[in-house]
Amino acid sequence: MLGLSLPALIVLASWFAAALLGTPQAWAGDLNLNAVLVWGTDEAKPRDADYKELDPKIRKKLGRFSRWRNYFVIKEEKASLARGAMKKLKMSAKCELELKNIDDATLEIKLFGEGRWTATLKKSAEAMRKGELAVLGGDDKDKYNDAWFVVISVPAP
Predict the structure, then answer these.
(1) pLDDT at 22 over 60
(2) 3 in a structural domain
(3) CA of 84: how far to CAs of 2, 33, 55, 105, in Å?
(4) Which residues span the domain enclosing 105?
(5) Distance between terminal CA atoms of the chain?
(6) In a domain, 19, yes or no
(7) Residue 12 belongs to a domain
(8) Of these four, 37, 52, 77, 141, which has the most CB atoms within 10 Å of its CB?
(9) Does pLDDT of 1 surpass 90?
(10) What is the number of structural domains in the chain?
């Protein structure tokens, strides 16, 4: 055939497969995420703000358990996490996330408000790859009847 021994062919085939697929650990464990800090309100967008409206698909999913007329994107961050990796995202002066790709199956999200840990959520990475959202939220301390949300999703390919 190519004049190569069977062991040499096996090594060559392994290198070829690795080149096509990447290393199995990186291919299986990498998790690309989109984190969005959202303001929920019944009021109109302030004139001096350049907030975007929340993506309609995400808004529809949020609408299943929240009641506000308007959802504005305050900040959006992207992160890519290898298996076992952790990354911090500063969403605002008062809001920070710690994302950890624990294993091929679990994403751990820690929310810090004003420098203090406030919540931890563990979410199935597979469910997120299929379109589920990880959502953390609470009342706005400065404005009665408003709320904030942090929405984490896996972008569609």
Answers:
(1) no
(2) no
(3) 41, 15, 30, 11
(4) 29-153
(5) 40
(6) no
(7) no
(8) 37
(9) no
(10) 1
